[in-house]
Structures are given as C-alpha cells and as structure tokens.
Amino acid sequence: MLTLLLSLLLAFLPAVSEETGVPAPDFSSYLTVLDQAFDAYEASDAESAVRLCESILPQIRATRDEENLCECLSLLGASYHRLGIFDLALDATQECYQLDLKSGDAGRISSSLNNLAGIYLATGEYETAESMILDAIEYEKDQENSQALAIRYGMAADIYQKLGRYDLAVQYATTALNLDREAGRTEKVAIRLSQLAEAYLGFGKLGEAERCLNQAVPVFLSAGNDHSLAICRQQQGMLALKRNDRPAAIRYFRMAADLARKTGNRMVERNVQRELAEALRPSDPTAALASMERYMVLNDSILKQETTQRLSEFRIKYELAEKDAELTAEKERLRTQKRMTFLFLALTILLLAILVGTWYLHQLRLRNRQIQEKAVRLKGRMVELGQVGDSMSQKERKQELENITKEMSDLMPDLHLTPREIEVAKYSAEGLLSKEIGDKLGISQRTVETHKTNIFRKLGINTTVELVRLVSDHPEMFRS
Fold first, then answer.
1. What secondary structure does DSSP assign to 276-322, as a single string?
2. Tens digits of per-residue pLDDT, 206-265?
3. Whole-prediction pTM value?
4. Distance between CA atoms of residues 462 and 129, nearest Å
5. What mean pLDDT comes out for the span 443-448?
6. Which residues is 23 bridged to in the sheet?
C-alpha cells in the first residue's frame, strides 16, 4: 500500500529537477515490479519473487533509493531463504542489515535481524539465531507495531523449539498468537497456531498440538497458502508418527513434500524427506532409501561449504560488533555514572551550604532581635530616668545613667553596624540630608535611605533626632 501511494505521488513530480536540471529518478518503473515481487512471495512463489527482485535491483542501486533498496534486498533474502539458497540469502540480508544500521531505523534493524535469525535457525546455528532474535525483539518493543512484534516472538518460538526449551517456545508462540488474535489477523493467527503446535510436539503434548493444527490447516487451505500448509502437513505427519500411525504419517509427509516442491521450498522438503524415510523404513526400505538420498542431495545443496564459511564469517563480525556495542554502552554508562556522582556531590554541597547559610541567617536574626529588644528596654529606662524628677537623688540619677551608658556600650559592638552604616550614621548626626550623604559617599539617595532604615532597626530607634542624640552622647560607638 505504501509503495502504491508513493507511486501515485511520484507520478505528479516533475521529470527534471528545477535546481540542477538533472532528470529525476523514475521510481515508478521499479516500484510496480517490487509490488509484484511481494505478491509472488505471498503467493508462495519464491522463484518469481527472486527473478523480479533481481531484475530491478541494479535500477534501484542507480537511483540511490536506500529505503526501497532495503525493501528489495529484504524480500530477495527472504525468497532465497525459502528456496534454501542460504549463501545468497545471507548476502542480500547482510547488505540490507548494514543499510538499516546506517539509517538508524529501529523497525528496519529489527526486521533484518529477524531475517538473519531465520537463516541461522535454518542452518542449525541456534545460539546465534537466539542472540539475533532477542536483539530484534528489543529493537521492536518500542515501535508500537504489533504485527512485527508478533513475527519476532514467533521466530523466537521456533528457535527455542530447536534448542529444546519448549517452555519458552510455548511462551513466545502464545504471546505472538495473542497479538495477532487481538488485531484480527486470521492468517497470521494460523501461523502462530502452527508454531505453537511445533512447541507442543516437542513437549509431547500431542492433544494440544492436534487442536492447534486442526484450527490452522483450514485457514491455509482457504487462503491458498501452500508454504504454511506444507509445514502443517509435516507437523501432522510428525504427530501421526509419534502415535505410531505410520500410514497416516507417510500420507502427510508425502503431501508436505509435494507442497514444498510446488513452492520451491527446499528447506521444508529436505526436513520432510528425512522424516518420510523414517516412516517408510519398516514397511518399504527401498522407498525409504530413495527419500534419504533425496534428503542428502537437498542437504548438500543447502549447506555448501561456501555457505557455511559465509555464515561463520558474518557470525564472527556480528558477535564482535555486539561486543563493541556492549563496551561502548558500558563506557557510556560509566561516564554517565561519574557525571551523576559529580552532580550528586555538587548538589549535596550546595544543599549543605544552603542549610548552613539558612541556619546562620536564622541565628543572626535571632541575635539582632534580642539586641533590638534590649535596646528598646534601655531606651525605656532612659525615658523613665528623665521622668523621675525629684524622686531620685542626683547621685542615683548619675549612677543609673552610667549603668545605661555602659550597657549601651556593651550592646553596640553586637549591633553589627557595617562601616558604611557607621558613616551614614555620623553624617546624619551632622545634619546632612540623604541626598548630600549619597553625594559624599558616591551612592544613591535610595541606598542611603536603606542604610538609615537598617541603622534605626539595629539601634532600636525611630527618628533621626534619636540618632543624633545617640551619636552625640556615645561618639566612641560610631568609630570606624
């Protein structure tokens, strides 16, 4: 559908670039063929899909249309895979994977890893396949593409079935089945049922396997999906063989072999021929030998020495790339950890500084409040002293005044008058206005008023007259 929309869009584009004058690439000419190749693959005609992809591959390379080049290479690799030509399948899929890595598209990377895992699964390198499919699942999880994620889980189920870890095979197949079932993808549901049946066969749960196959087979028959039907017929043969029903097993295996030959799926035919030979051996040794010979021919053509070598080379590159990625991730993790540790220490120090500063300011405010309260009391005593009249002798008045003066002297150093505040206080006592004081000190009138407000607050007085009297009576308290 996307390629069709792109074709329609490109039909309205100018044939020549307005900026460069270079003829624009004719995308539509190969997009139609690419659609035909996808249709052929879906119709289980892998040979036609290969032929169509190879016919347009040079043209796509020439246009440097990397997205559709990846589509073509991916389909070509899958088609070669289905035909059992794994050296060419690996070449196409590996090139597609490198382009996907370059693009950074997580969904495309996941798709290529899934295809690579399928190649290694088919050639018996199950551990490598497991590593690749688990990476593919991680890439796919955040893509919100339930169909693609179901395919990854289904591939994982096939791999764990071959590894003999049937519990995981059932788990992954069931997860994939639920995803496709929720989306209403009927044919995909049938494929997941087939994968689940394979896991149940490994478990020896023959009843569960049979129920899955009974649901899947009618769907493939109705859809004309001979590729998937061949796999189900093979599974039915295995089920019959496990129940010692050799005639039924032989019948299903032969049906599977015919379907595999019809679709050109040498992988399925190879596996079926080996199982058919086992089923035939007791009753027809000659036919069993013929099936085994066919198996050997197919096996040799599929697993050529060159194919094995290429698979090994790519596996090594992939594993090294994974290790490099792990080392890079570990280095980044350590760098992040160091940055976070430094940030934590910096924030801790800042928090401690704020706490200490807050505590100091609180203590300073508390102390100033105590000084102000004491200054107010001394002021009250001074007022009372002026109001007592003859009730107190001259000597007593003098003594009380000295006591007040001494307490005031003792109090003054704790008032925390700054040098600037002392200057403002003395100039105020000389009768200078705030603007004149500002001019003398090189500060604004507003700043002078602020200093005076602070002086009044600290000394516990309210007017300039009181300040003049205090400076006049206790000049020693206002020395810088």
1. HHHHHTTT-HHHHHHHHHHHHHHHHHHS-HHHHHHHHHHHHHHHHHH
2. 999 999 999 999 999 999 999 999 999 999 999 999 999 999 999 999 999 999 999 988
3. 0.62
4. 88
5. 90
6. 16
Angle at 186 between CA 162 and CA 197, to 5 degrees: 25
Q: Which two tokens stand for residue 129?
A: 């396949």
Name every residue whose Cβ is closer than 8 Å to that of residue 120 and which is 6 or more positions away in sequence: 126, 128, 129, 132, 311, 315
Residue length of the chain: 480
Structure tokens of 298? 């197919």
- On whether the CB atoms of residues 314 and 94 are closer than 8 A, the answer is yes
> How many Å apart are CA 239 and CA 275, to the nearest integer?
11
Contact 229, 220 (CB under 8 A): yes
Q: What are phi and psi of 225, to 5 degrees?
A: -85, 85
- Listed in sequence order, the DSSP H helices in 43-85 are 46-63, 66-83
In one-letter notation, the amino acid at residue 125 is E
Condensed to tens digits (0 to 9), the pLDDT of residues 213-224 reads 999 999 999 999
In this predicted structure, what is the pLDDT of residue 415?
57
Q: Which fold has domain 417-480?
A: Arc Repressor Mutant, subunit A (1.10.10)
| Distance between CA atoms of residues 30 and 170, nearest Å | 41
Distance of CA 479 to the CA centre of its chain: 69
The domain limits of the chain are 1-10+25-144, 346-413, 417-480
CA–CA separation, 367 and 432 (whole Å): 31
The amino acid at residue 28 is S
How many whole angstroms separate alpha carbon 379 and alpha carbon 368?
16
Looking at the domain 1-10+25-144, which fold is it? 1.25.40
The candidate with the shortest Cα–Cα distance to 149, out of 111, 116, 184, is: 111
